[in-house]
Amino acid sequence: MVNAWYMNDNDSEDQRSERHLSPPQFVSLDELSDKTGVLYYAINADDYEAEGKLAKIRAERGYTYSDSLECCPQRLDNYLEKIKSFFTEHIHSDEEIRFVLNGSGYFDVRDNEDKWIRILVEKGDLLILPAGIYHRFTLDNNDYIKVIRLFVGEPVWTPINRPADTHPARVDYLANLTKVS
Question: Which residues cross the membrane (predicted)?
Fold first, then answer.
């Protein structure tokens, strides 16, 4: 089960630490969905093909392309530079979908009041970030994650750094989030 919490925004603290508020303020899956539009699924990472959940989600949401990525110092060229770029707050014009096969990391997302929520993703977690949500990613102190990335059609890898409040994906995201909240 995924864990999520409101985080402190202390930039002097290691980005890979948990960064809890004091006292910690956890966020339920329902709150996460209501306040951000983020969707979560638990999938058997060791036998996901036989289990069928991932195939069902792919079909329902129209994900036609996938690849995998191992993010660690030994497997990712320009590792430190990439990790730094992943941690820059941005949006995408498409959903960002990640299924964790192994390892762990953090997705940070902005809620409907522009506060950071940190989401710990681990083996078996599938996270769908809606197009237009401000977010960023970092590894935790284990420095390793292996994911399947899913896309509708060919992958689009264009991060649009904040501020991007007038971008059509952001405008649509805010309009849809308001309808849900």
Answer: none
Instruction: Respond yes or no on whether the N-terminal peptide bond of residue 163 is cis (omega within 30° of 0).
Output: yes
pLDDT tens profile 51-79: 999 999 999 999 999 999 999 999 999 99
Whole domain around residue 140: which residue ranges? 3-8+25-172
Predicted confidence at residue 90, as pLDDT, reads: 98
**Residue 167 marked as a ligand binder:** no
Question: Is 51 assigned a ligand-binding role in the annotation?
Answer: no
Q: Is 61 helix (H, G, I), strand (E, B) or coil?
A: helix
The span from the CA of 79 to the CA of 54, in Å, is: 29
- 13 a known binding residue? no
Residue 46 sits in a domain whose CATH number is 2.60.120.10
Global model pTM greater than 0.85: yes
Task: Give residue 22's Cα distance to chain centre.
Answer: 24
Three-state secondary structure along 5-48? EEECCCCCCCCCCCCEEEEEEECCHHHHHHHHCCEEEECCCCCH
Does residue 157 sit within a domain?
Answer: yes
CA distance 35 to 155: 27
